[in-house]
Automatic annotation (TrEMBL):
Residues 60-181 form the TonB-dependent receptor plug domain. Keywords: Cell outer membrane, Membrane, Receptor, Signal, TonB box, Transmembrane, Transmembrane beta strand, Transport. It comes from Alteromonas gracilis. Gene3D superfamilies: TonB-dependent receptor, beta-barrel domain, TonB-dependent receptor, plug domain. It comes from the Bacteria. InterPro entries: Beta-barrel_TonB, Beta-barrel_TonB_sf, Plug_dom, Plug_dom_sf, TonB-dep_rcpt-like. The lineage of its organism: Bacteria, Pseudomonadati, Pseudomonadota, Gammaproteobacteria, Alteromonadales. This is TonB-dependent receptor.
Amino acid sequence: MNTTLSLLTRNVRGVLAASAAFSVMATAPVYAQEAEESAKAEDFEQIAVVGSRAAPRSVADSAVPIDIISDEEFKQQGATDMVSMMQTVVPSFNVNDQPINDASTLVRPANLRGMASDHTLVLVNGKRRHRSAVITFLGGGLSDGAQGPDISVIPAAALKQVEVLRDGAAAQYGSDAIAGVINFVLSDASEGGTFEARYGSYYEGDGDMIQLSGNVGLPLSENGFLNLSAEYRTADDTSRSVQRDDAAALVAAGNTFVADPAQIWGSPEIKHDIKLFANAGIELSATSEAYMFGNFAEREVEGGFYFRNPHNRGGVNDGGTNADGEQLLLVGDLTGDMSGNCPTDIVVGDNVLTNPRYISEVANNPDCFAFNEILPGGFTPRFGGTVTDMSLVFGTKGELDNDITYDVSLNLGQNEVDFAISNTINPSLGPDTPTSFSPGRYTQSEQTLDIDFTKPFDVGLYEPLFVATGFQYRNESYESVAGDTASYEIGPLATQGFGIGSNGFPGLAANSQGRVSRNNIALYIDAEAYITESFMLAGALRYEDFSDFGDTTKGKIAFRWQALENIAFRGAFSTGFKAPTLGQSNVRNVTTAFGTGGQLIDRATLPPTDPVSQLKGGEQLTPEESESITFGIVADFENGLFITADYYNIELTDRISTASGIALTEDDIAALIAQGINDASSFQEISFFTNDFDTTTEGVDVVANYSMEMMGGETKFSLAYNWTSTEVDRASDNISAERIRMLEDNLPAVRYSATANHTNGDWRFLARLNYYGSIFEDHLDSALPIDKVGSEFTVDLEVAYNFTEEFTVTVGAKNAFDEYPDENTQYAGIAGSLYPTTSPIGINGGFYYLRGVYSF
């Protein structure tokens, strides 16, 4: 069987078959033309060794940079979720904590090569992975509005390896592959297995984590396999907060109902996180096989939110100001005919609870009501939800006559997020409000049909010309389901200035729910050949037609030149695109954001084609377009030293993001109400998705590996280095200056990790030095700029001992020396965040863990 379309081949009961289905553009030049079986075996060993621990992580013979990360590399670190694991082992992969950041709390956005989280295409066993239903409305600037796949639903126990193609590949795989492609290859073992138990906690004594996982391989008849994986995890929340200045002032004035701290900044609580994966394959004949794989995952997360001050929270306590500029209390009249004669001029002072007028005219008056009666210390909502993810892929592949290989598959995927908010109110309902709400549910569904063929042609070159061609049909939908009635209900106090909907995350109203869908077809052709013994040339062309915005054609060309015995050069030029997602084009959402000067505002995200959005400059979204250049060198020396260095330059035009918050006028609010958006009176700002800026991102990735015998054992050294720089070339007035700086400087310009892994008998010792360059932060997306979050070093340490051949115990520490980012001294008192919230090293400090693994 032709193996040239895969990064890695696998042996299923003696049958050589492609596992990753990567394009010829990212392939080691191994040829199976009319070869003897022994030659095939040699090629199999040559390719498979890339995924072993003894070999370099980057594929040396590829025309573009590729990392191969084995399952062992994932296990040898303290992180437990897939997003954090990827950051440790891939040089240009970045992710930061999202302590209070709306939907980002549920699905953290990750960035490859300085691009947004939905600029990287994710595959599982070579098949496109569906998107998450979560749109990261507040994504730390760079990923604002991104809607990418949720890779955290993939358990490490299910993996054989991960392949990271760090190059634009939209011409091969379609939309999203602007920054690159990540392919998760599932374990295909037909026997044996592992069981792992892990416990960890932060040095501060919080964030306790328990994880149980396992994998088992079973035979499926005599000619197949069934591989099953499961993971269960829980984690407590953390707090790295200080008391807010306004909360401290309330306490000093005698309000004993205010919590300390009033607002929690830290990792959210993971109430449960269940992940199940299955991978199966069976021979149909000597030249064909059937395969099937799929998953189910469910994760419930709850995190902190912003403190609602009992004196001035808009729509809850804020009654405006008097002529002297003094804060007044919002008081509601509970009588049906407004006959309560409730006061509207009570000055809150330092502590309204001790104001005699409040006590006599409100607290002890059944006709009048203020939320201070039931929430005297204000309140801090808890926000989160449940993410449910499932997929099923099945197909067949094999070899026909004349060396033609085929792969036909059907891919079904769905991701659903059911939001939840508690410890909050619907102010318009007054004293009858519930305190817990289900604000709505969003579902992303995708169905994909792939038909792929490959064939070598003898055209008189040094090696045959390998051609791959195929067809893809994809249908996707995005559905929004209304929240429970109380989460969006317009209560009797709405006309008196009280806010509408669950405060912090108002529910999606019934008249705003709905389902939108689209489909697209794609045709592609790839070709690759060694023109001479040392020079390989490859090209790709892809045409796609979307039902909602039209068609596009993209291309790519790549080369590899073995200039010297140990030195090779490689490079590529490609054009790419990312289609606007259905969620970005159609979603309606309201979230609480931190406004300039410290106030909280309710910001509504509307479709860009909504009349109010169009008044503010909104237009129908168009695809993002990219041009990408990669050029690199590969050095593979006889002493075992292996180095790759690759420069990349990505010009991206018409980038899609959410506009910075735009203030609403009274006329705007009236127009929204006329559309049936009756809670618009609660909105202070709107936002919408827009193609409003262009960027140029360039950088360098360096990967180096070296092994040597020392101290009676073997030590493997590795270095992963990345430099990335982004410049905003064009931006409209809808993108603020702070957003531009976040796009350019919120990720570290330089990041690297150097690892030494020493094995000696039954002992293994690992040390990893991590460096993160300085960043800029628009603190809380509120135009409170932290000009520089300083660079940091962290160290990871791990010691493992094999008690028997089957049982291993590991003790380790991530950020072993308990490093924290520079304290946020300038703005800590505004919202209580002790550290810059987007610091690349996180805000939680050191984390220790104990792991036991039993293999059988």
